[in-house]
Amino acid sequence: MSGHATRSLGRVLLTGARGFLGAATRARLRQEGIDVVGADIGDGMPGDGITACDLRCNDDIVALFASAPFDTVLHCGAVSGPMVLADRPGDIWRINAQGTAELLEAARRSGAGRIVVCSSVEVYGARRRGVLDESAPPDPPGVYGASKLAAEAAVIGYANGEGLDVLALRLGWIYGPGRATPTMLEALLRAASEGRDFEVEGHPADAAHYIYIEDAVSGLLGAATAGAVTSRIFNIVGPAGETLGDVADVVRRLCPQSRIDFERAEPSAEGPDGYTSHRAVDELGFRARVGLGDGLERTMRSLATPPA
Predict the structure, then answer these.
(1) What residues contact 148, with CB distance under 8 A and at least 6 apart?
(2) What does the alpha-carbon distance between residue 171 and residue 209 come to, in Å, rounded to a whole number?
(3) Tell me, what DSSP letter sits at residue 226?
(4) C-alpha distances in angstroms, 241 versus 17, 45, 195, 246, 272?
(5) Contacts of 130 (CB under 8 A, 6+ apart)
């Protein structure tokens, strides 16, 4: 963040506080002594200090803002990927699109400060090639991506029309210790560590858009603490140009006994080759710090450690 004007986080509301990104963000904030109020669906574990909030219920959202205004709102609460609630597209829309719009309205009415909404590179879709920046026209491939794009539209509308200080982050594929949602990467790492065969869904040349959890948290907090910004939408991603073959090579180095094959004989003809974070570097001071090798090694180590 050196050389960039910053703002204080002050009192923070964090939605999705039990999720992968939310929990890691909450841990970082608490470690730094920040006053953070966490919210998430359900009751969770007794005594975890997280307020129940269902983003499908406007009353729950409004209740979050009933106390003193928040200086910063980090909106990580959402359906976290196209594999989640895949058979319930209506709920995906209500949570990601309508829930975000209602949160922005509640934040506006309460006088909240900076708001950061988590979006996804999924909004770009798979029909464009090359390395994409934020000017590439979105083309979401399904309800999940469309719901994230609708949330971004609410961000732009509330920023331009209502003067709300709100940004949206298009996050890459977040990975690392603590992810509960099943993913191909986790399955690969578990198979490799156990010496089992694994077939990757794709070709070695297919692009991989991974970002390590620590870098994702840093991008989120960078957006929250940046001074005056000129943009509203930012890519928060790892280095462009990484492939599924690169992932497999790292896993083979970490687990020489691993046996990894690929499902496809030809590279995919669809999908971007990567995404740039130049805008986030320039305006937020963000830069991914954890390389694929280091990140995968940390993740694999965590899979071998029994939960406390």
Answers:
(1) 78, 96, 97, 119, 120, 122, 123, 140
(2) 9
(3) B
(4) 31, 40, 28, 10, 10
(5) 272, 273
Please report the DSSP string for 147-159 in residue order: HHHHHHHHHHHHH
Return the SS3 of 62: helix
- In three-state secondary structure terms, 281 is helix
CB 242 within 8 A of CB 207: yes
Q: What is the pLDDT of residues 217-269, one digit of tens each?
A: 999 999 999 998 999 999 999 987 899 999 999 999 999 999 999 999 999 99
Instruction: Give the bridge partners for 114, in sequence order.
Output: 72
pLDDT in tens, 151-171: 999 999 999 999 999 999 999
SS3 of the chain: helix, strand, coil, percent, to 5: 40, 20, 45
Report how far residue 112's alpha carbon sits from residue 12's, in angstroms, rounded to the nearest whole number: 10
Q: Which residues, given as ranges, of the chain have pLDDT below 70?
A: 1-3, 44-47, 305-308
Who's near 89: CB < 8 A, 6+ residues apart? 143
